[in-house]
Amino acid sequence: MSDLAQPLPMTDTPVKVAPLRISERHVAGALILALCAVLVLIIALPLWALLSKSLEDTQGKFVGLANFVSYATTPSLFYSLLNSLLVASATTLIVVPLAFLYAYALRRSCIPAKGAFYAAAMIPVFAPSLLSGLALIYLFGNQGILKSLMMGTSLYGPVGIVAAEALYSFPHAMLILVTALALSDGRLREAADAMGTSRWRIFRTITLPGARYGVISAIFVVFTLVITDFGIPKVIGGQFSVLATDAYRQVVGQQNFPMGAVVGIILLVPAVLAFFVDRVVQRRQSAMLSARAVPYVPRPDRRRDLALLGFVSLVALAIVGPYAIAFWGSFVKYWPYNLSLTLSNYDFAQVEPDGWGTYANSLMLASLTAVIGTALIFTGAYLIEKVKLFPRLRAFAQFLAMLPMAVPGLVLGLGYVFFYNAGWNPLGFLYGTLTILVINTVAHFYTVGHITALTSLKQLDGEFESVSASLKVPFWSTFRRVTAPICLPAILDIAVYVFVNALTTVSAVIFLYGADTKLASIAIVHMDEAGAMASAAGMASIIMVTAIAVKLLHVGLDQLVFGRLQQWRQR
Amino acid sequence: MSKTAISPTTPFLSIRNLAKNFGAFRALHDIDLDIHRGEFVCFLGPSGCGKTTLLRAVAGLDLQDSGTIHMGGRDVSHASPSERDFGIVFQSYALFPNLTVADNVGYGLVNRRRSRDEIARRVDELLALVGLPDQGKKYPVQLSGGQQQRVALARALATSPELLLLDEPLSALDAKVRLRLRDEMRSLQQRLGVTTIMVTHDQEEALAMADRIVVMRDGAVEQVGSPEEIYRRPATPFVADFVGHMTFMDAIVTGPGKVRVDELDLVVANAAPFAIGTPVRLAMRPEEVRTRGIGAETPNRFEATIGDLAFLGSFCRAHLEPTGSRATRIAADFSTNAMRDLGIVPGQVRAVAFPPEALHVFAGDGR
Q1: What is the predicted pLDDT for the residue at B5?
Q2: Fewest CB atoms within 10 Å of the CB: A99, A224, B160, B332?
Q3: CB A406 within 8 A of CB A273
Q4: Measuring CA to CA, how many Å separate A192 from each of A183, A202, A294?
Q5: What is the pLDDT of residue B2?
């Protein structure tokens, strides 16, 4: 039979086996091993350093849990734990219901200008957290234009912290709830309507249970954000100390590293808890909606829509207003006595030795982090998801990649201090350099980018790699020619996310910057400490404007990518 | 393909003792199989029977736990996919969406030190071969499902592999397209003479396309044979039931070549070595039930009432109730011609017969 059958009409004899100079298996193994090594170095070892430091005394001798005992028995330290819990609980109680209603209005009603309201609520994401604190000081502080509304209560303390944290954490809660409310089966509503169910009962028995995992997730995220935030208590907390400011004071002020480590580990608890709750919730949420579900499309309802429009407008005003005031304030000569405008507050060199140089440092850090971080995160996710070799190593890398989500920036920063500043560490020369800031920032924001990359990789046909292997095309060629081009939108998402966060973050890098690598976000803290509030607000505004500009550029670029460069997406 | 020195009797693909487990689940065990050069072999079975696992082991995409695979005389048991020589087509097409049809087809040619012209010529040849000339500039999303699967086929054949693997290639297509592509793929395979393995759960597809069918069940091979063998002489009740339709009846052996179902004494041609009194299972295809030209001498003749009739296009399926036996119902297919000529209607009592050579006898324990 074999002699009868003719091969294809060939133009010449085919090359049967392409010469494989390097074995794919070796390359894959080396890359996965390298990924593990990098993740160990930037995530695992710093955390290990933090844990071991908490069990040592200041001389480096092992003392077991003695530090934790002395923490619990030192009233001033123990009270900040209670303060932190109080502030975080109060903020969560305020933010989650408001964010739920806001998200409900965006998803389940027919109010106009949903896009604008969505954008308005997102503004805090683009600014350093402490800008919301500065904004509130402009409004309700000692020189605030609305100070009379406070009726004698001091803004500087729990009241100010809760208000500012509420502003700052609102978009994070809203994002989760908007997603949760997007997942709903319209046919459930239709069935309920057909049975003449009252609106309140529909809300109670369908809407709320459908979004319950989102609500749980939002509660944990807000609580964790608030309890680990450093910037806001720093600028508006006054004498009211919380865990995050304690950690800073112990390490930077008193050089008491072990006690700083103890505070760091306490901060780790809610974050780790939130992380595991989120994992469980994610699994349940996706299982809840079958592939056959029909998305719910809201129908106009005049009374409901008007009420929600009023509510949404108020909230949006309460968010945009303070930021606008702070922006305005940064141009004002002498708040609130001389409201004429000036650019002198933007002459940062007057109050901060490095002046505009800190902004340049921030841009440098954000750009480097975006480029290096995105390359690492996406390639890493590809190796973990698509290369089917070395399952144990890949599982280990996956675990490390998910870890930073459970580690607040402040805690990671402490870990970096303990690890990279240790006398025995040959990498100690990195301390204070731009390199360590980049490494730390990549690690800090690794997980969100990793999840974005995984999600987009999982959407690709699982057999691309099999087909390439059968055609004897090595996996790195397919990565370059197929996988990366298809995932370009996700890659852009990751880059912009990392860039914006690198610009605005304070918590981790405040322990790590050096004399000539001071960042704009840190300069804000220092200018505020020095009493130059207008300049602090000015620098924060510059960061915010930059971040928003990058985001707008991203939106434009996305359209270009989808429209012209990737014609293959269109039918 | 005659350039290899292997004698024509040596199998091209030789699988011995293959086994694979997923945790406690035995996905494959005791697989022994030879496939000859130029053969078209179908792995047929219900979902979860291990047919795709076996195909992926042949490809090297999922390695077996134990056992060996020889391909063209070479031991490839532990070779990676790129060290084996095969083209593969998946149910999902797995076309690269960001590359044109031509770039997809030429994907495996690019890094084989071929000139650009040569590649372009070869791609045109292949596209003509699968009936898609002049479609090279389009993107996969602009093609129909059937066209996309043709492109995938062209891509798999581009490097002239010795072995073509098809993983449920037609399952995602509409019924009409499926039938057409099925015939085209079969004739293409015969023209090229490329050794082909196709995984399918569709028995009709397997019967129509394969030179040989490997029926699988619970990770093991149940029967290997030509489509006709599988259909006419199923080795087990499972094969009998899975391929085509079959009526099963409980029976008792009453003598050499004789069995009894309820009150019916029947003669079977393929006398099985069962002792008298052994309970057995009797099986019979609906289309084998005779109702024309039955005389007094016709063996296995009996009277039966026509139960409900289902119209199925070119034939009708009737359920027969043998007179004096309420428990047994036997499916029988009557052609539309027979229905008209004989005036078959529900409730009628007719003489019918089981040809002794059409009765299959299996052991009573279900195997």
Answers
A1: 46
A2: B160
A3: no
A4: 17, 7, 15
A5: 40
Could you report how far apart the first and last alpha carbons of chain A are, in Å?
44
Q: Whose structure tokens read 């200041």?
A: A58
H helices of A229-368, where? Answer: 231-236, 243-248, 257-288, 302-329, 357-368
How many Å from the N-terminal Cα to the C-terminal Cα in chain B? 41
Q: Touching check for B96 and chain A: CB below 8 Å?
A: yes
**Widest pairwise Cα distance in chain B:** 79
Whether A11 sits inside 8 A of B118 (CB atoms) is yes
Assess A22–B contact: CB distance below 8 Å, yes or no. Answer: no
Residue count of chain B: 367
Which of B8, B90, B141 has its CB closest to that of A568? Answer: B141
Q: Sheet harboring B349-353: ordered strands across? A: B330-335, B315-322, B301-311, B349-353
Note whether A11 contacts B60, CB cutoff 8 Å: no
CA gap B56, B81 in Å, rounded: 9
Secondary structure (DSSP) of B101-133: HHHHHTTTTTTSS--HHHHHHHHHHHHHHTT-T
pLDDT, one tens digit per residue, over A366-401 is 999 999 999 999 999 999 999 888 889 999 999 999
Residue B6 has pLDDT above 60, yes or no: no
Tokens 């087990």, residue located: B236
The Cα A389–Cα A27 span in angstroms is: 11
Output DSSP code: residue A242. -
DSSP states of A441-477: HHHHTHHHHHHHHHHHHHTS-TTHHHHHHHTT--HHH
